[in-house]
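tool=predict chain=A
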Amino acid sequence: MIQDLLAYFDPLDYLGIWLLWAFILAFIVSWLTFPTIIRVAQVKQLMDEPGSRSSHSTKTPTLGGIAIFFSLAVVITTIGGVLDTKILMLLLGGLTVLFFLGLKDDLLVLAPRTKFLAQLLVAGVLIIFTDTRIVGFFGIFGITTLPYVVSVLFTLFVYILIINAYNLIDGVDGLAGSLALFACAALAFLFWKTQDVSMTTIAVATIGSLVPFLRFNFSKKRKIFMGDTGSMIVGFLIAFFVVRFLSEAQMFPTSLYYTSAPILALAIVFFPLLDTLRIFFIRAVIHKKSPFKADRNHLHHGFINLGYSHKQTTLCIVIINTVLFILALLFKDFEIHLQLCLLLAIGTVLYSVAFIYHWLLKNKSQSKIVEQSR
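tool=predict ok
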């Protein structure tokens, strides 16, 4: 009886209820798990010690990724049974590998090379066994289709870039979690529009797992950080969503986003990529040091230095990224190179406005002081 019902069940027929259930299930599991993790971390002293680069002044648990992983695992292994099982099981396998490596890194510290190789491994398995890859550049720079090997290598590069970009932006309260929530919401919308139920479900479930995390991440008394466990899992998921969206859009010329998919994807991950490329340029070119050596030159540190609080910094960045995504949707029927130029120009300006404004105020104040001293 149950088998017959499952055989004819199509989530598309009940999509609203289906997605609500995925969100609620992930939310409940995540919400119930966080207090236990915080309590265990405090008892066992599994806490992050504030250092010279830290934006916090007290010992704080860094195991938030455990609850995020656990809630996603529950969703995938239960309601995932009526979705695209093959790709979800491979996705869960990749999440599990990164979960344990991230956990070890949060507790004992892991060599960067080991993390890099693990990221290559899980991304490679997904690319090869599901053939979910970036096939070409959608006509950008005149490139439509890439040779298979180049396509695989470029897709691997995208995975590594996005995973580590989300790790690098995890520097102030709520930023990585809020940007991940925004990215999952934007991608869930795109997957919903293209009727990709499996990806819409997992994106919505990820939102459900992140909402409780943000509640505790912003808390003063029961604070918890995402840690490398959470940032790697979230970064890997968003990278997979982006690659899946691009792959599906290019496979079907009649796709709703066939002429705009790469611009929409770039708009979604604009801030993490902008900050990563900027920080690597500052470290390697300007300061002549290793691009992997941590410092306080991130954009979010810049907002903090201007006097913004953690919440204000996170809110400003998420609002700007949301505006960019909405604009990218409005531009989606433009010629693709024009879309790209508009996104890069507007994005750069929007993220520079606050710094330019404060710089002008500072110069104005200094000019007044000089005039008064004469």
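The mean pLDDT is 87. The longest helix spans residues 336-373.
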